[in-house]
Write a structure and sequence with these properties.
This protein is mostly beta strands. About 10% of the residues lie in helices and about 40% in strands. It has 2 helices and 13 strands. A 5-stranded antiparallel β-sheet has the order 1-2-5-6-13, with no helix packed on it. Strands 3-4-7-12 form a 4-stranded antiparallel β-sheet, with no helix packed on it. A hairpin with a 7-residue loop joins strand 9 and strand 10. The longest helix has 9 residues. The radius of gyration is 28 Å and the shape is rod-shaped.
């Protein structure tokens, strides 16, 4: 048990977003113009456990037949700054515009499928043969939740 606990403690923690800086310095040196600065995070989706199918009395197929799978990720911090020259028509009014989007968690769920069995369970009054049912089909709608926000600034 001690070895298992030590192995579990030694596993690295998985990051929700990988920070990335977009290098635009080559454009500045090549073209000789001020370029925006962009730093963001690449989301790393984490797949959760699908909903377990349930069997109901009298049904031959489980519900749901194709379970919905939850997926969660974190949209990383994004910062975009760009020089804004001659804001009021004068060189003294040079400024900088920025767009800042803080990190937020986004969760989604894939669509699922519900299928009704076209046959019933064996029926004793029908000599042990199953009866025919009207086939039924249903879709579990996909789901997306999150609260992304952004702040636009000028200085």
């Amino acid at each position: 048990m001690t070895c298992m606990a030590a192995a579990g403690a030694a596993t690295p923690a998985m990051a929700d977003a990988v920070p990335v800086g977009v290098p635009l310095d080559a454009v500045r040196t090549t073209l000789g113009v001020d370029v925006p600065h962009l730093a963001t995070g690449v989301p790393v989706p984490v797949v959760g456990a699908p909903e377990a199918p349930r069997f109901h009395k009298g049904d031959m197929l489980p519900t749901p037949l194709l379970p919905a799978v939850p997926i969660g990720t974190e949209l990383g911090d994004t910062l975009l700054t760009s020089p804004v020259p001659n804001l009021l028509g004068k060189p003294e009014t040079d400024g900088e515009g920025s767009l800042d989007a803080p990190a937020t968690t986004v969760r989604t769920r894939t669509p699922g499928l519900l299928v009704g069995s076209p046959l019933t369970m064996p029926d004793g009054s029908n000599h042990g043969l199953p009866n025919v049912n009207a086939p039924a089909l249903g879709i579990i709608a996909p789901d997306l939740t999150g609260t992304p926000e952004a702040l636009l600034g000028l200085r």
